């Protein structure tokens, strides 16, 4: 997968044998082989790519955690294999100044930033979704007590950590992992969405073909295909927006 979650180049050699099950699903539901389907293999590949791209942009089921070092300016380079669009959260490690709730560092006389270090250390060592939610809850509790705000921004291909005066050494980047292409074909939402897109393309093709030949039946069928496909896509878009996923930017 590319940094755009899914490579958009329909002619990429890796798509040569990809999505075959998904393409068959589309063709059979459009009536092939009893009905001629005026779509090329490239058309079908585009539908599959767009469906996978949208689904895993909004609903990544699996997660990966990458522990990375922070430079002196509190900036983290996003690893090349992680799409910035798929970053869900940044998990901070315990600060070097950490003497307990409201603890004061004797050398600098500054209030320490205090976080649930036991949960953090466990997360950075081995990620677990249940522990992640516990981590978020504990951070919210501490935020209310200390009114300290840790947060992060993505600028170009870097993560900028705040507050600037904090001493960060490592953070964990939590990101949605996109599975192999062959596994994408098993997701019901992707199958339905790619079929909806195919109906829209097929309908538009048939409407254009009508202008090149006599008769109006193809024109009527094309309009119906576009209408059905658009209704499918709109419904599935709405369904996708209601799916639950961990909320980003809930750190201190």
Topology of this structure?
Elements: H1 20-29, H2 41-58, E1 62-69, E2 75-77, E3 87-92, H3 117-125, H4 129-146, E4 151-155, E5 158-162, E6 170-177, H5 181-184, H6 188-210, H7 217-241
Antiparallel strand pairs: 1-6, 2-5, 3-6, 4-5
Strand content: 5-15%
Query: Ranges with pLDDT <50 over ≥5 residues?
Result: 95-117, 245-252
Order of helices and strands: HHEEEHHEEEHHH
Count of beta strands: 6
Structural class of the helices, strands and pairings? Answer: alpha+beta
The overall pLDDT, averaged over residues, is: 76
Q: Strand order of the main beta sheet, please?
A: 1-6-3
Give the fraction of residues assigned to helices. 40-55%
> What number of structural domains do the residues give?
2
Largest sheet: 3 strands, antiparallel
- Please state the overall shape, judged from the principal axes of the Cα atoms: elongated
Number of helical runs?
7
By oligomeric state, this entry counts as single chain
Radius of gyration: 24 Å
Distance between the termini: 32 Å
Structure description:
With 252 residues, the protein is of the alpha+beta class. The protein has 2 domains: 13-59 and 180-241, no CATH class; 62-177, no CATH class. It has 7 helices and 6 strands. It has helices at 20-29, 41-58, 117-125, 129-146, 181-184, 188-210, 217-241, and strands spanning 62-69, 75-77, 87-92, 151-155, 158-162, 170-177. The strands form 2 sheets. It has a 3-stranded antiparallel sheet. It has a 3-stranded antiparallel sheet with strand order 2-5-4, with no helix packed on it. Strand 4 (151-155) and strand 5 form a beta hairpin. The chain is elongated. It starts with 19 loop residues before the first helix and ends in an 11-residue tail after the last helix. The model is unreliable at 95-117 and 245-252 (pLDDT under 50).
């Amino acid at each position: 997968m590319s940094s755009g979650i899914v490579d958009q180049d329909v002619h990429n050699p890796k798509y040569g044998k990809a999505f075959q099950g998904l393409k068959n699903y589309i063709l059979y539901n459009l009536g092939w082989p009893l009905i001629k389907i005026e779509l090329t293999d490239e058309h079908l590949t585009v539908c599959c790519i767009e469906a996978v791209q949208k689904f895993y942009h909004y609903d990544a089921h699996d997660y990966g955690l990458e522990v990375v070092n922070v430079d002196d300016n509190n900036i983290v380079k996003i690893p090349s294999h992680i799409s910035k669009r798929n970053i869900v959260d940044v998990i901070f490690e315990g600060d070097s100044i950490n003497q307990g709730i409201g603890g004061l560092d004797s050398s600098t006389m500054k209030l320490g930033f205090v976080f649930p270090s036991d949960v953090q250390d466990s997360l950075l060592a081995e990620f677990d979704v249940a522990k992640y939610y516990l981590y978020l809850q504990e951070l919210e509790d501490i935020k209310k007590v200390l009114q300290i705000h840790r947060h992060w921004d993505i600028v170009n291909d870097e993560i900028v950590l705040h507050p600037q005066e904090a001493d960060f050494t490592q953070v964990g980047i939590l990101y949605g992992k996109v599975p192999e292409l062959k596994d994408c074909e098993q997701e019901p939402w992707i199958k339905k969405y790619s079929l909806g897109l195919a109906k829209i393309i097929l309908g538009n093709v048939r409407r254009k073909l009508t202008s090149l030949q006599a008769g109006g039946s193809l024109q009527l069928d094309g309009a119906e295909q576009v209408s059905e496909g658009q209704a499918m896509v709109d419904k599935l878009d709405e369904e996708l927006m209601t799916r639950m996923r961990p909320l980003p930017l809930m750190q201190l």
